Amino acid sequence: MKLVAVVFLSCLATLIPVSRAAAQGTDLAVIVNPNNPVTNVSSADLRKIFSGGKRSWPGGIPVKLIVRAPGSHERLVLLRLLGMSESEYKQYWTAQVFRGEADTEPYTVPSFGMVKEAAVIFPGAISLVEAQNVKSGMPLKVIKVDGRLPGDAGYPLH
Amino acid sequence: MVVTGLGGAQTAPPADQETISLLVQQVKELQQHDRELQERIRFLEANQKGTATPNPPPSTPEVAPVPEAQAAPPQLLEMHTLHGIQWRGFAELDYKALDQRAPELGTYGFNPGSAGNFYTGDFDLFLTSRLTERASVLSEIDFEEGGAQSFKTDLRRMLLKYDVNDHLKISLGRYQTSIGYYNWAFRSAAWLQTTADRPLVMEFASDGGLLPTQAVGISVTGSIPSGTLGLHYIGEYGSSDTVRPDITNSGLLNDENNSNHVNAGVFLSPDRIPGLRIGGSIYHDQISDLVSLAAGGGSSTPPPGSTVPSASARWNQTIVNGHIVYVGRGFEFLNEAFLIRHAPIGTGETFNTPAFYSQFSRKFGPVRPFARFQWVNASPRNTIYDDVQLRFGPSFGLRYDPNDYIALKAQLDHTARRGLPDLNGLHLQMAVTF
């Protein structure tokens, strides 16, 4: 019986890194410019940032939203975060700009490469990217969401 | 080849294993690069299909790192950006029929007294441009149809904006007053509205609405540190110039000859219920009620019982608003109440005009049925609103969005009026944004 338990636990232990890696594979990382001092945001703040409700970082740097084009995984997660459909999202941003609540709609880019480039160029940039695409050595900073990084249990963006 | 290479890695010496790992890494990076290029091609193709003009595609930036000093913003594909200026256009085409026995509500090109007619309402051009990281300029020019297919131009907004941070955003110029939610949320774009028209109380003053909807001055807004409550403030100080036509088609204009107004408001948007907004505002001004005859307007006889005050008569005007609004998850539930208080200075008299509207809609795919009820009760002795008096009634309709740029609306209205026959109307509208 003891042997069975040891074998079972050993199997479980070997599975844990696999499931963490799998989770990281589908998780989205929140990336910002490497010089941004922020290291953690709450889910509520993230929603505010991506809906244009919070428009500056601590220190006053204006937030620059970089979002992926419709059809991408990142876009679907963003819409889920905001609780909107694609058409509601477009209408929402048209209204935000027209009200004067935002100067521009979020920059929409078609690829991870362009997100990466924009995040380096704009000091206030923030974007959602697939965590598996972020490699060490890239000039990007991944920030925590609710104190968790992609791959952590309970990470909210996937 | 990769599979073979990986298979070989099982028995290869450590130096070879390292080479194989590097090769596998390079293959992965190439595959990723290929995916990105494919995605970019698809996006560019989709964009080219969406535009009729054969413009050359924007140059695509290199993915390879660019030296910081030479870095320029990537060529981002934004439909509404031209040389750094964001632009938008809104337009509408309307058809309205009203069973009016005594003609009224002759605005936006609708001919009072006709059985029904087409008109184009507002044609709105909106421009905004960032001047610095924190400063920007915003302008909104409106071409509005008047009588006999004439058009007037109105600079609805022209603002120089400066955002210090989330807690302090300053605007200078011509703005739309933040009395209530509706004026803030929908401005003058029919495409943004669910319904075909605005509630009477929130109608633009130049079209017979009751409130001073526009002004020139300074406006400040921002968030108040309040945790998850999401508290915000609005402050405005400026000069309105409210001239509202009588909605009974008497041909009279009420020029309020405003002083400088003060408007202060707060609202909260709690984190726990995204889309909920609860707020209120208080507005104060001193006005006159100068009555003049509109050029080419209706009958020249003032309504029975109304008086024409002297030019020197001044009134204290105070407008209190409260609103509870929920917009989210396909639902729209707007509720606003107003108390408009007019007190002729030195007479001891006061006239209170309460008003409210409630609007509910629910989105089912591209279709959004809606219902609205509005109510206004102005004293017949209040010479500022003697054309309004008591009127109330429901509106029902449907908005259909065949795509992201066009909205088709059909609306039925019923308005009961004190001492006048009820009004029944049909309003069809095609509203577009471009």
Please describe what this structure looks like:
Chain A is α/β, with parallel strands linked by helices. Chain A has a single domain (28-145), classed as Periplasmic binding protein-like II (D-Maltodextrin-Binding Protein, domain 2), CATH 3.40.190. Chain A is 42% helix and 16% strand. Chain A has five helices and six strands, in the order H-E-E-H-E-H-H-E-H-E-E. Chain A has helices spanning 2-26, 43-50, 73-82, 86-99, 112-121, and strands spanning 28-32, 40-41, 64-68, 107-109, 125-130, 141-145. In chain A, strands 2-6-1-5-3-4 form a six-stranded mixed sheet. The radius of gyration of chain A is 18 Å and the shape is globular. Chain A starts with a helix and ends in a 13-residue tail after the last strand. Residues 11-23 of chain A have low confidence and may be disordered. Chain B is mainly β and 434 residues long. Chain B has one domain: Porin (Beta Barrel). In chain B, the strands form two sheets. Chain B has a 16-stranded antiparallel β-barrel with strand order 2-4-5-6-7-8-9-12-13-15-16-17-18-19-20-21. In chain B, strands 10-11-14 form a three-stranded antiparallel sheet, with no helix packed on it. Chain B is globular, with a radius of gyration of 28 Å. Mean pLDDT of chain B is 81; it is low at 1-10, 49-77 and 297-301. Chains A and B meet through helix 2, helix 4, strand 4 and helix 5 of A and helix 2, strand 2, strand 4, strand 6 and helix 3 of B.
CATH superfamily annotation of chain B? Porin
The biggest beta sheet of chain A reads:
6 strands, mixed
Rounded to the nearest angstrom, the distance between the terminal CA atoms of chain B is 51 Å
Mean pLDDT of chain B: 81
Q: What is the CATH first-level class name of chain B?
A: Mainly Beta
Cα-based radius of gyration of chain A, to the nearest Å: 18 Å
